[in-house]
Amino acid sequence: MKEIIKIKSISEVHDFYGFAKPKHPLVSVLPIDERMTNVDYGDASYTFDFYQISLKEGMKGALSYGRNSYDFQEGTITFIQPNQTVKVNQSADYQGSSGWTLIFHPDLIRKSELGKTIENYSFFNYEVSEALHLSDEEKQSITELVRKIEKEYEQNIDKHSQEIIIANIEMILKYCKRYYDRQFYTRTNLNKDVISKFEQVIREYYQSDKPTEHGVLSVKYCAQELSMSSNYLGDLIKNETGRNAKDHIQDYIIEKAKTKIVGTNESVSEIAYALGFEYPQGFNKLFKARTGMSPSKYRNLN
Question: Domain 4-186 classified CATH 2.60.120?
């Protein structure tokens, strides 16, 4: 079993890379320089007890998904949340790169509004290959906010410091949400291709025996078939169609159910099991929520 190294605090990160002691126990901005790029990460994987937002420049081939002619190439931002497992590919991820990494512990934001809403920023669950690519102007906007955080904890910390630091972190996340929406928009042709493949995955699943073997089709299964994270697929579908991926799956299930209800003599229970439902009650509830009537009533009307 490969070694997993757990880094619990901001201080441990500074020690690991040989940086001076942190000015604040719960937040720090680290430069991506030779101290970080020359570390021998070995074959181990790493987990961290804090959030990381990293702007990397001079990348060497680590980000292969979705790169095309209209992506911005000036800088790439990745997001890591606490307890995610990370493996560093030095030749691809770090060597020759520069930039900064903002790290902050959950305790910093725990009592704030951001502590309640940070889970809504789904890009913390994207894969590294689904990173955010920034223009020069976008990169400058984000970096200015990072420098404000850095300046705030480097001066004398007072009762306002934490509130100001958190406000800037929240602003960074809001800007990144805007820039991801821009990235989805500029990739519209690629996204339509993904949606077409997503619909194909749904059709092929329900044309096979997989529903009876594995249950109702999940967004996670579709994402794995398309080699992307569930969150990224969900956000892509929502941005492109206005509806989430689960809705698309359920639409297909309901249309297939209607065909079976009207066109066969199968019982409602048999139809439910064939569509992957463990219990008919779950199928009945979904069908009624989507059509306004039970499967039996729908059959009688037709």
Answer: yes
